[in-house]
Amino acid sequence: MATVAQWIEGARIRTFPNAIAPVLAGTGAAAGIDGFDPVTAVLALLVSMLLIIGVNFANDYSDGIRGTDDDRVGPFRLVGSGSARPSAVRAAAWTCFGLAAVAGLGVVILSGHWWLLAVGALCIAGAWYYTGGKRPYGYAGLGELAVFVFFGLVAVLGTMYVQADTISGSGIGAAVGIGSLSSAVLVANNLRDIPSDRVTGKRTLAVLLGDRDTRTLYVALTLVPFLITVLIGLRNSWALLGFLALPLLIVPLRAVAGGSQGRALIPALRDTGFAMLAWAILTGVAVAIG
C-alpha cells in the first residue's frame, strides 16, 4: 500500500504552477477592467487545482495499466511502481474530478452562466481521455495542443469571464502566453521520455517530431510569452515587468538547447513551471493596475 508521501508525490506537485498560473493571470485581467471577484477567483483556483491533480492521477493509472511507466526516467508513479492498486489511483482521479465539478458548479451559480457546465464537462473529459480510453489523444501527438487550450485559453479566459463577464485583449494575450509556457512544460517532459515512449508505442508530439525539432519547439514556446509582453506593453508599460521572468528560463533553455537527456531534463520542467508562475504574477499585476 502506498504511503501518504507517495500519494503526494503521485499528485506531482511540480505541475501545480500549470494550474495556479492561469487563474492568477485571468484574475489580473479581470481586475484590470474592474471585474475582480475574490470568491469566484478562489473557486476557479480550486477547480484548476483539482483538475490537474485529477489528470495526474488519471495519467498515472492509464499509463500504468498500459505498461508505459514500467521503465520511466521521470517522477515516481503509483501504478507503474506497484505501490498502489490501479483501482485506487483511478478512484483518486475521479474523486478529484468530482470535487472539481462541485467547485465548478459554485462558479457557474455565482456567474450565472449555466452554459459553462458544458465547458466543465469537456475539461473533465479532456483530462481523462488524455491517456485514458481506447484511443487516448495524448498517444497521438495532441497533448501539447490540449494543454494550450485547456490550461491556457480555457483556464485564463474562463477565469476572467466568470469574474468580469467579458474578455479583453490583455486577457487573450495572457491566455496565449500561459498556454505556450504550459505546453513547453509538457514538451520538456515528453522530450525526456522519447526513448521509453518509442519502445512502448506512445506517439507523443516529441516522438513524432524527433529530438532536434522537439528542442526547437520548446525554445519557440518559451519565447512566445515575451512577445506577448511586448505587445501588451505597447499600451500598458507595466506589462514589461513580465521580462523579469525571463532569467528563470536561462537554465532550462540551456539544458534543452544544449542537448541534455534523461534525468538531466527533469529540472527543466520545474524551472519552466516557475517561470510560468512568475510571468503570470507579473503580467497579472501589470494588467490589473495598468
Automatic annotation (TrEMBL):
What pathway is it annotated to?
Quinol/quinone metabolism; menaquinone biosynthesis; menaquinol from 1,4-dihydroxy-2-naphthoate: step 1/2
> Where located?
Cell membrane; Membrane
Identify the Pfam families for this entry.
UbiA
Q: Coiled-coil intervals in this record?
A: none
Q: How does it sit in the membrane?
A: Multi-pass membrane protein
Transmembrane spans: 39-58, 91-108, 114-130, 142-161, 167-188, 217-234, 240-257, 269-289
The EC category is transferase
Q: Where is this protein primarily located?
A: membrane
User: Which transformation does this protein catalyse, written as a reaction?
Assistant: an all-trans-polyprenyl diphosphate + 1,4-dihydroxy-2-naphthoate + H(+) = a 2-demethylmenaquinol + CO2 + diphosphate
Q: Which NCBIfam families match?
A: menA, PRK06080.1-3
Q: What is this protein called?
A: 1,4-dihydroxy-2-naphthoate octaprenyltransferase
> What is the source species?
Saccharopolyspora elongata
What gene is this protein translated from?
A: menA
